[in-house]
Design brief:
Its EC number is 2.7.7.12. Its cofactor is Zn(2+). It is an enzyme of class 2 (transferase). Keywords: Carbohydrate metabolism, Galactose metabolism, Metal-binding, Nucleotidyltransferase, Transferase, Zinc. Strand 11 and strand 12 form a beta hairpin. The strands form two sheets. This protein has an eleven-stranded antiparallel beta sheet, with helices on both faces. It has a three-stranded antiparallel beta sheet with strand order 4-3-6, with no helix packed on it. It has six helices and 14 strands. About 35% of the residues are buried. It has two domains: about 190 residues, 2-Layer Sandwich (HIT family, subunit A); about 160 residues, 2-Layer Sandwich (HIT family, subunit A). With about 350 residues, the protein is α+β, with helices and mostly antiparallel strands.
Length: about 350
């Protein structure tokens, strides 16, 4: 069990955005003044538009066109910036850092409210944060030592608690995109944390299925799926006393692994200390297997599905979904017309064969 300091050291960036340093025991963050000539941060940079054909919100964030795009390593804005002139993180070094995104999709505190009548945009309230897993530019989450990984999890928990209590936030989503094939423009090991002002479409569908299952079977959908995957066994990748990693029966992506705690919880905040330690171990284990599949590191997306203990989200079971578009050593799976236009996924590989391959890579 790790001795983790959870209270962050707070600082401000030159444009007024918040910056939080999370430190390992014995490490004292030492931010320096951010001396970049940045314009004052505008929290009203984007808007929501309601698509009546699908009943879904679309985020329009045109200012994101100006965000940093594939800078050379010596100009990475996520590396430490000891001069206060070069980086989003003005400090000589750091362990884990969270800061408000300079080019957010969501910002501000107003609630969505009623769906507007006609072609009327509403402010895209919410919050978008960046989380840097390490100051080492050439590292990855799989490379983190156990204590560093646990510190990232504590930062996720801290921000989850804060955002779940924030006005107008309906869903908290921690995620990582890794690899240029996924669309990553900054290679420094980092993820993002979104506080959405609405339930995302996939979450709404999953919760709807869970409610139907509860009404029909009297039990939790996710608990039953996990039990059936364990009983079947053919798609299990790794299993401990506290967590299970498996390729789902109806996997949509060429490489897809879900990580579930073995007991029902809604979110990271409900895991106990032993579960948090084991979660970090299992998460790094699966990512390490990903990187051993081929000669080059696997591009992936990581999605932490978290839920609030409310009437509308009570059936939600915390889990992580890891996905990659790489379908072989030389080929990628592109989301073409069937997937992108119709949301009808076509899988090119058998889930059982992917699970068997990942089991071999222990």
């Amino acid at each position: 069990m790790f001795d983790i300091v959870t209270a962050p050291t707070r600082a401000k960036l030159a444009d007024g955005r918040e910056l939080l340093f999370f430190a390992l025991p014995g490490h004292q963050p030492a931010p320096v003044p951010d001396r970049r000539p940045l314009p004052q941060f505008d929290p009203h940079q984007s808007e929501l538009r309601f698509d009546r054909t699908t009943g879904q919100w679309v985020i329009v964030a045109a200012r994101r066109q100006d965000r940093t795009y594939k800078p050379p390593p010596d100009q990475c804005p996520l590396c430490p910036g000891p001069t206060g002139l070069t980086s989003e993180i003005p400090a000589r070094d750091y362990d884990v850092v969270v800061f408000e995104n300079r080019f957010p999709s969501l910002s501000g505190t107003s609630a969505v409210g009623e769906v507007p009548d006609g072609f009327v945009p509403v402010p895209a309230a919410g919050r978008c944060e960046v989380i840097c897993f390490s100051s080492n530019h050439d590292s990855s989450f799989a490379d983190l030592d156990p204590a560093q990984a646990r510190l990232v999890i504590e930062a996720w928990r801290h921000r989850t608690s804060f955002l779940m209590a924030a006005p107008g936030v309906e869903q908290v989503f921690c995620f990582e995109n890794r690899g240029e094939e996924i669309g990553v423009t900054l290679t420094h090991p980092h993820g993002q944390i979104y506080g959405y002002p609405f339930l995302t479409p996939r979450t709404a569908v999953m919760l709807g299925q869970a409610r139907e299952h509860r009404n029909r079977c009297g039990s939790n959908l996710f608990e039953d799926l996990l039990a059936r995957e364990v009983a079947d066994g053919s798609r299990i990748v790794a299993r401990s006393e506290l967590f299970t990693a498996f390729v789902p029966f109806a996997a949509r992506w060429p490489v897809e692994v879900h990580i579930y705690p073995n007991r029902f919880v809604h979110n990271l905040l409900e895991l106990d200390e032993a579960e948090l330690d084991d979660f970090g171990r299992m998460y790094r284990d699966v990512l390490g297997r990903f990187d051993r599949m081929y000669d080059a590191p696997l591009p992936y997306m990581s999605a932490l599905h978290q839920y609030a203990d409310t009437d509308t989200q009570r059936e939600g079971y915390f889990h992580v979904e890891l996905m990659s578009i790489r379908r072989s050593a030389v080929a990628l799976k592109y989301l073409a017309a069937s997937e992108s236009a119709m949301d009808a996924f076509i899988s090119d590989v058998m889930p059982e064969s992917v699970a068997a391959r990942l089991r071999e890579l222990a």
